[in-house]
Design goal:
alpha+beta; 2-enoyl-CoA Hydratase, Chain A, domain 1; 2 domains; six-stranded mixed β-sheet; five-stranded antiparallel β-sheet; 23 strands
C-alpha cells in the first residue's frame, strides 16, 4: 500500500518546485519593473510623465496578449456602461474605416437634428489629437465622455475645400438593441438586432411575444449582420426563447474553474417549433456567433449569409484599484457540438489566421448529424457571397461608397 505514496512523492515535489519558481519569477519581475520605472523617472535626461510611462508599460504588457486585453480608466468606462446600462455619454454616431480613413457612417435618430456632423464626414482630429493613424477600436476613448461635455472635431466634408472645425456636445445616448422589426407580407417576422446588451433579450422577448400572439407569423428572421457582439448572457437569453429548457446553448472553458461554466436554456420557450433563419456576415462576431452557432448546432435554424468573423474568446472585466478595470481574455467558448470557432491564434499579440485547413476536427450537429468544422467562424447553411450583388452595388459596398 506504500508504493503509490512513494511514486507520487516526486511528482508532488516537482509541482511544489515549479510553483516556487513561478512565485520567484513574479517577485523578480516586480522588483526589476519597479526599479526601471523609478530610474527612468528620476534619471532620464528628458522630461518624462509618470502617467505616460505607466500607461506605456501596461499597454506594452497587454498588447503582447491579444487585441482584446486593455486597461480601462475610470473616465473610459463608457463601454461598460453601454453593455450594462444600455446607454453611454457620446456623440451618437457610428464610425467606420476604409483605406485608413475614419468617417461617420451613421448618426442616431435622436441626435440628427442636434449635431453639426454629417454622414460621410471624415474625422481628422479630436480635441487637438490627430486620429488619422489611430485604430478604430481606440476612437471610442476620444469620442465618448460625460454627457454635456464638448468635444472639438476637425473633419473633412465632401464638396467643401477646407477642413471644418466643429464643436459637438456629448449627450446621453440610449442604445436600442432592436432598431427595426416588422411583419413582412409573406407572414415572416423580421427583427434586426444591433448589439447584445443586458436589455436586448427582454426587448426581443417582449416584441416576439406581442407579434406571435397575433397568430399571423409563419417564421422569424433574426438579422445579426454587422453585430460585433456584447454580453454572452444576452446571446444565451436570446437562443433560450426558441429551445426547450435544459438544452445546452454554449459553454466556456478557462484556466480556472471561475472562468468555466455551462449555459443551458432555463426559460420556457416562446415557440420551440416556429421556423427561424439567422442572417450573418463577416462582421458578425462574438455573441452574434454564439446565437448563430448554437442555432446551427441544434439544427434549430437555418443560417444565411457570409462566413462570420470567428471570435471564440470571452473577456472578463476585472475591477482594479483607483476605479480602473482590466478587460482580459479568460475563456474560450464552445458551441453545443463541442466546437470552438476562434479563427485567430495570437502569438506575442500578433494574429495568425488559423485558416480552414489548420484544424481537421469535425463535429456533428445534434439532430441531423451534419458535419461542422472548427476554427473557421460560422459557415452559413446557405452561403450568399458578397459578389452575388450587382456589380454597381458591390463596388459601392467594397469601397464603403454607400456611406460617403
Amino acid at each position: 500500500m506504500r508504493l503509490p505514496v512513494i511514486i507520487a512523492l516526486p511528482a508532488i515535489l516537482l509541482l511544489a518546485a515549479a510553483v516556487q519558481d513561478t512565485s520567484r519569477d513574479i517577485v523578480r519581475g516586480f522588483d526589476i519593473l519597479g526599479a526601471v520605472y523609478k530610474n527612468v523617472l528620476s534619471e532620464y535626461v528628458g522630461d518624462v510623465s509618470a502617467a505616460d510611462l505607466f500607461h506605456a508599460g501596461v499597454n506594452g504588457m497587454l498588447k503582447s496578449l491579444d487585441p482584446y486585453a486593455e486597461l480601462i480608466e475610470q473616465r473610459e468606462n463608457s463601454d461598460v456602461d453601454a453593455l450594462s446600462r444600455g446607454s453611454y455619454g457620446g456623440l451618437g454616431i457610428k464610425v467606420r474605416t476604409s483605406a485608413g480613413v475614419h468617417y461617420v457612417s451613421d448618426i442616431y435618430p435622436e441626435v440628427r437634428s442636434l449635431t453639426t456632423l454629417r454622414i460621410g464626414d471624415e474625422l481628422l482630429a479630436v480635441d487637438g489629437h490627430d486620429i488619422e493613424k489611430e485604430k478604430i477600436s481606440d476612437l471610442r476613448s476620444f469620442l465618448r465622455g460625460a454627457p454635456g461635455s464638448n468635444v472639438q472635431l476637425v473633419v473633412r466634408r465632401a464638396g467643401v475645400s477646407d477642413s471644418l472645425a466643429l464643436v459637438v456636445q456629448r449627450r446621453r445616448i440610449k442604445l436600442n438593441p432592436v432598431p427595426y422589426h416588422a411583419v413582412l407580407e409573406d407572414g415572416m417576422f423580421y427583427l434586426k438586432l444591433s448589439r447584445f446588451t443586458r436589455s436586448s433579450a427582454d426587448s426581443v422577448r417582449n416584441i416576439l411575444r406581442r407579434v406571435l400572439a397575433d397568430g399571423e407569423v409563419r417564421g422569424v428572421i433574426l438579422d445579426v449582420r454587422d453585430n460585433s457582439g456584447g454580453l454572452l448572457e444576452a446571446a444565451v437569453a436570446l437562443v433560450d426563447q426558441f429551445v426547450s429548457p435544459g438544452t445546452s446553448i454554449v459553454s466556456m472553458r478557462g484556466r480556472h474553474a471561475t472562468y468555466s461554466r455551462d449555459y443551458p436554456a432555463r426559460e420556457t420557450a416562446l415557440d420551440e417549433d416556429i421556423p427561424v433563419a439567422v442572417l450573418v456576415n463577416n462582421r458578425s462576431a462574438s455573441a452574434s456567433e454564439i446565437v448563430a452557432g448554437a442555432f446551427q448546432d441544434l439544427d434549430r435554424a437555418i443560417i444565411v449569409g457570409e462566413r462570420t468573423f470567428g471570435k471564440g474568446l470571452v473577456q472578463t472585466l476585472v475591477p482594479l484599484p483607483h476605479g480602473t478595470t482590466l478587460k482580459l481574455t479568460t475563456s474560450r467558448y464552445y458551441l453545443p457540438s463541442g466546437r470552438c470557432i476562434q479563427r485567430f491564434v495570437y502569438e506575442n499579440g500578433q494574429a495568425q489566421d488559423a485558416g480552414p485547413q489548420s484544424n481537421t476536427d469535425t463535429y456533428s450537429t445534434l439532430v441531423l448529424n451534419r458535419n461542422m468544422k472548427e476554427s473557421i467562424g460560422i459557415t452559413p447553411d446557405v452561403l450568399i457571397a458578397r459578389d452575388s450583388l450587382p456589380a454597381g452595388l458591390r463596388c459601392l459596398s467594397d469601397n464603403d461608397g454607400i456611406f460617403r
